[in-house]
Amino acid sequence: MMKNSETPICDLGFGVKQESAQPEALKKAVHTRRRSSAASTCSFSSACFTGSSDEEEISPRDKTQRSTTGFTDFCVKNINAQYAFGRREIDIAEQEMPGIMTLRKRAREDKPLRNAKIVGCTHINAQTAVLIETLVELGASVRWAACNIYSTQNAVAAALAEAGIPIYAWRGETEEDFWWCLDKCISANNWQPNLILDDGGDATHLMWKKYPELFKEIKGIVEESLTGVHRLYHMSKNGKLTVPAINVNDSVTKMKFDNFYSMQDAILDSLKRTTDIMFGGKQVVVCGYGDVGKGCAKSLKAQGCIVYVTEIDPICALQASMDGHRVVTLNEVIRSVDVVVTATGNKNVVTREHMDRMKNGCIVCNMGHSNSEIDVNSIHTPELRWETVRSQVDHIIWPDGRMIILLAEGRLVNMSCSTVPSFVVSVAAATQALALIELYNAVQGRYKSDVYLLPKKMDEYVASLHLPTFDAHLTELSDEQAKYLGLNRSGPFKPNYYRY
Amino acid sequence: MMKNSETPICDLGFGVKQESAQPEALKKAVHTRRRSSAASTCSFSSACFTGSSDEEEISPRDKTQRSTTGFTDFCVKNINAQYAFGRREIDIAEQEMPGIMTLRKRAREDKPLRNAKIVGCTHINAQTAVLIETLVELGASVRWAACNIYSTQNAVAAALAEAGIPIYAWRGETEEDFWWCLDKCISANNWQPNLILDDGGDATHLMWKKYPELFKEIKGIVEESLTGVHRLYHMSKNGKLTVPAINVNDSVTKMKFDNFYSMQDAILDSLKRTTDIMFGGKQVVVCGYGDVGKGCAKSLKAQGCIVYVTEIDPICALQASMDGHRVVTLNEVIRSVDVVVTATGNKNVVTREHMDRMKNGCIVCNMGHSNSEIDVNSIHTPELRWETVRSQVDHIIWPDGRMIILLAEGRLVNMSCSTVPSFVVSVAAATQALALIELYNAVQGRYKSDVYLLPKKMDEYVASLHLPTFDAHLTELSDEQAKYLGLNRSGPFKPNYYRY
Amino acid sequence: MMKNSETPICDLGFGVKQESAQPEALKKAVHTRRRSSAASTCSFSSACFTGSSDEEEISPRDKTQRSTTGFTDFCVKNINAQYAFGRREIDIAEQEMPGIMTLRKRAREDKPLRNAKIVGCTHINAQTAVLIETLVELGASVRWAACNIYSTQNAVAAALAEAGIPIYAWRGETEEDFWWCLDKCISANNWQPNLILDDGGDATHLMWKKYPELFKEIKGIVEESLTGVHRLYHMSKNGKLTVPAINVNDSVTKMKFDNFYSMQDAILDSLKRTTDIMFGGKQVVVCGYGDVGKGCAKSLKAQGCIVYVTEIDPICALQASMDGHRVVTLNEVIRSVDVVVTATGNKNVVTREHMDRMKNGCIVCNMGHSNSEIDVNSIHTPELRWETVRSQVDHIIWPDGRMIILLAEGRLVNMSCSTVPSFVVSVAAATQALALIELYNAVQGRYKSDVYLLPKKMDEYVASLHLPTFDAHLTELSDEQAKYLGLNRSGPFKPNYYRY
Amino acid sequence: MMKNSETPICDLGFGVKQESAQPEALKKAVHTRRRSSAASTCSFSSACFTGSSDEEEISPRDKTQRSTTGFTDFCVKNINAQYAFGRREIDIAEQEMPGIMTLRKRAREDKPLRNAKIVGCTHINAQTAVLIETLVELGASVRWAACNIYSTQNAVAAALAEAGIPIYAWRGETEEDFWWCLDKCISANNWQPNLILDDGGDATHLMWKKYPELFKEIKGIVEESLTGVHRLYHMSKNGKLTVPAINVNDSVTKMKFDNFYSMQDAILDSLKRTTDIMFGGKQVVVCGYGDVGKGCAKSLKAQGCIVYVTEIDPICALQASMDGHRVVTLNEVIRSVDVVVTATGNKNVVTREHMDRMKNGCIVCNMGHSNSEIDVNSIHTPELRWETVRSQVDHIIWPDGRMIILLAEGRLVNMSCSTVPSFVVSVAAATQALALIELYNAVQGRYKSDVYLLPKKMDEYVASLHLPTFDAHLTELSDEQAKYLGLNRSGPFKPNYYRY
Q1: Are residues B68 and B163 in the same domain?
Q2: ipTM metric
Q3: Nearest residue of B to residue C348 by CA position?
């Protein structure tokens, strides 16, 4: 279950791309992306809103830019006006990303990415900037584009360019800009990429499609999104994946943080910022009891809510029961609950029929990984009146005066109305960096042309990088104990199928 | 322990007024009020920020205003431009104030305040507007001024004026305006007040001082602030209180909501909105384990923080221990904690010495009821650099680069960086309304010229007004059971000293 | 709300004694006591069951006994055979009673009870023995009888006698024995008591009735039971109380431990030991949301139960709602709950009508302070079959085969099926000792012939005695802070009406 | 991680049997079993202690027994005297085993085990009797022996025999008896077994070794213990497993209950029954943060303990941190904690060195799955004094008087000092029954001669059988939703690698 904002975008894009890889289809995919993700572009940092005033007429592609040191291999918006602010944002992010910073320190001497040449295509914001600069410190040369036309923090891109990193990205790219930027990153003179770090699969797809000779030569791909992973598995199944790839989306440490831990905070924050709800005594139904639902239910209950759970899977339903939540169908409680939270990954979980029966003032929001969990289309009908009372908060008013409160128009409320803590990004970034190191340094033949999970030991290493934050001290096995357990003293400590 | 924003203001004002009631002193008190409360004026509603753009040059006192129905007995800012927006804010607030709305419905027929003439002096915002209009529905005629020169929501004041209520208030009054407004409320033609609803004691003071003959005739005073209550007890002690007064600040239901329940939400919200902190595993010290500290500690622990508590009182310290928190002195943990929260009501709980030893990135905030819990003056020194990174968030940077994060400049972070849920205000408003009804309808001689707590039965009634929100159903005593317990079937159910 | 086992006993005895103090009535009271308390006599220690095999034919009164040192001023059962075992029980109890042991150490030099002569009448078990020996170490000479004919741990009584303490008590006294023992304690030669420590009021009553001249001379009475306190207030009201008395039953620290904290553990323990129930997902209704109900509800919810609450008081009901429990009437949930827990102090809270509708296998138990919360008489009818499946566990079987599980025959399940942790007794014992010290050392005139609560500062001192157990460190006020708060640096820190 | 009592037994037995299958070795294995498991034989039911008085001289093998209906194909102890009591125990167990009873009802008509002939070798107690009788109701004929010479509840065995089930088992079998009983179950006249249900692998081993021609013909083996599963994998690896087997030990539903949920209750119950500890404020270190450690830590924290965690695995350590526990090494906290709980599965986690430094009164217990987590041998030295203060509770006293409290002599405290709730056994029993049904009805060729996990769908079915207990209602996928998710509407709903 994936929690990144690009999920819905790429889900749509994926279907299109799968059927035909023609330029038109690609444009359509990116166009779809624009509509569906505009609202969530600012979710990564409270500070990103400051970038909204720099919109101007001239495209960055039509301007000549130059860093204070004379560097020109980049294309961003207003480098000189913004880089200082962007640098401070990066500085602040560094303080809250202990894992990736520790990795930077530990591996700085070794330079495990010496001579690595990485094409990157991810969101560009303060946190990913910390990742990018870490890769450079570890010895890599990189070229970077944005994976989303709306999510770039321009000031951060400016700071990276000022630091001499070839970066091609700005907020509000057109679809053509998007592909132009990506192309500039892949096909530089005298620079043959040997690794891809991708978020959604576009860099992989473009290189495979347009530069097959380059593609064949790379050492591997690291992909972090659910959609990109699907595309890789699809390529692999069809025999088109000719290089190794690591799926970091399903890494244990990253998943626990993206889903369970992150959501514990996010549900409270999202509801509070939008509605000022008081949690005590509120009746809430959480649809879905996977890791996201578990995190939401736990926090809401702890704050005094009465939590109901809906589930399709008996095992998760039994867990919900044992954890002290009533397991119900949505129909049973829809008339009485104060809040409906979706966390299923499914579509049309909340239907018009449900919304017709909710009580006055019921809050409806989506924490899942699909934007279609709430059937928002069904309430875009003439007899219902929509009033936007705050940003991301709509009152939908029935003819009889009854009103429901829809957050973020049914999109991911945690992305639209809360923030992703830097600590969570730190876990994901460290996972990506380690996957790149693993692919780059693996002995010949260790990885075939297939999609791999991050080795358990690397996953454990990601976790260990974040322990000093908590002043947590690991216990070490004695030789005798390691032998008794049949383990290597330095791990991995669990079999792959272990359920954390 | 009081959680209203006027506390620190009035604490200062009180001292001054006590010594001398001369105009100059009063002005000074109000002036002090301005400086100390500016930051918290917007705390009552997320929507209040919308009012900030209507600042203009001409004073409301210099303009002739008229409602659409021709009403003119008021002085607000821009009635015609703003009343519609203000009305919607009131409508929204009504939906979240079930207690006061239920009271309105129940008592509408009886009109228990028929012919009551109330001078009101409180904050003026959507929630207090619901109270004001409820008093009117219950039969009272009212005249209303603001108790704070910065906290008025102009649009709400406009809506009240449009509805025909004599209201004298706008955001940004001068001190002279303040007293002029109050005077206009007290000394209207053909309108002799018989009740005062006060927040801070200024209406009481002015009437007692300037209109002693009016003052003698009133049936009673209801006061909701800690400061105003102190002033009343002082008057009583000195034999100057010639009418009954009810202290609603210490009502059980109100206190539990103002302190314990409200703070459970507010600590998480305040920290999250300002710092995007991830709670899991964070080490937090909560200074003070009264109701505020208990609420903070409970929520933080539930979200995965490791909570330490400091206390001066052995009984509260023992409670903290039994509740699973380590009880420490601040010195023991100051080098290792990630967050310091003050909730003591004391002064200089966090000193420069403490701040000199905090770890890099430590967050410091105040949830108590005094603005002096953190010795902020001690860090206004040349060698420390202050950087405001977001609204209400300052980085204070030591010469060695170490940095602490101070929220709301040490003022109440829950008022500055979070909101007071309407439900909490609903409890307070219902308490005030019932106190007014009690004083107005009490049989002759029931209340002497003294300060009373709200009768237990009224307090229970306030609670009962809020139960339908939770679909909560009370059990009724049988006659046999009531007799066994020695209780009246309709309450009160507990002795006055009962500890809830 | 009182949690001591003697409550029901004394409730009955009290009514009788009040009406007439004749021997016959007293006998009846004590006789009633026997029936109602037999089951709970062993509740104070798991080890007390070891005493059950020493029942024999000859009454202790008919045997000559002598300690190994030749001491003979006592009457217990089998001193020589049992004192060693009793001493070890006392040793173990001392380790878990940090408060009273610290007091012993601190006050050993001062001997604040030097020359005090105390008549004691309490349960006699390992924990009270620690109290008794502490009083002796503090300088007192004591004479001690049991307040309950069934609760004496004979081995402990033997150990006290062997240590030279005049003790008159054994398990299984007749009513005549009971009064004979008490008389022996009050009317010794050359020993004029000046303090009474009473649990239920019998020592007070006997001395006042039979030895009025002695009674007049005492410095004061400390009473720890709800019933005894009622009797004192009754005496006071009728002008018969000619000496000061301290009610320690309502001391803050003691009450919190007796009710809230103690019950958190006890509800889980009581249910588990009797029924092996698995808590997760169980639906439980807790009747009453005072401190006992709050403690039960909190623990059950934390272990995964879904908790419903019934309440008569709107304030407590609102607290339950805010704490995340549905507030219902018993009728609403009686068909669906798995467990019914009473904690009201009321009578007939669970009626035959309720029991007729419970689902098969429903567990019913009483945690309140009255034995009549469950109408057990109503199910002693011929058509229902009772099967005792384990000690304290009865299956009541309806003609249709449906069955409910009644614990402890409706008596206090926490007393019958769990234990009172020594730590809780330590708090009570320290409170009693301090009350005795206070009365004995008070300056002339400080206490009149009335019933007092323990002074707040003493209450705080009891708490402070128990902090070292948790390695808890108090913060001390600076002079400046104390002045700011208007407090003495050494306390008391809260007004008497403060709600912890 | 396995929580059954046979673990230590079979671990020992396994090693021996593996090296040589000679009778002497087998005897030794069983002998070892006796010593190591005696203390835990009564753990399955509080009622099993009633069986302890029926020890007599004559071996059951030397007596002729006959049921009231004339049935004689069994060997138990005192059928006539005990069957009625045993039947009632079974009746009680049925009420708390909803899953297996629902399965019984649902499959009674189908008789999915018609003509199945099952050799069973498990513990024999009220709960397993419910399983056995369910198998019979589903159409199977069974023959049953005990897997442990000490754990049989004789009354239950008698009830089964009285019901006409061939059962060969009694408490206190000799090793020879053990193999004789098992042989009687395998090699009956005119009865060719086609399924084995095994707990520890002894039935499998004996049939494979002594009756290879019978073994070849069976349809499959269901094994529920960790040890038995190890033996099967070993057979499979060595090419000796000639029939399919299902490992139910690692089924998802069963594991979650055996470890996480069961331990939440068990840690509190074990500590309370043995030590009467009050949980509030106690400092506890939990060694190991797998499912068992997670369950223990969660409950202890909820009851007010301050919990420290030790871990070797960084991922689990990070989880502990995020869940609000300090992660430490044992050395860091050993001097200050009140309780040490082991839950690692490792050996010598608590060493003599640790115990030398524990504070006076520290409680030490083992919740893990190995009996060697605490190095008990190291404290069986002359300078330390052992005092058994209650059953399963030893005080170990150092020469300086310092004392630690060791529970269950370091064996599994949850097995020795608590009980396994019937609900947990119900989950395991339903899992076993479904595995038997699956193997018996699988189409030819579906299962090879290998060891399989229970199919996910069956695992989900086990969970679904237990939902009615909680009145939990599953949501059903619409066709459209199922298609969207790529799932079959009836499940399985998750991939095999899903982490619940």
Answers
A1: yes
A2: 0.87
A3: B481
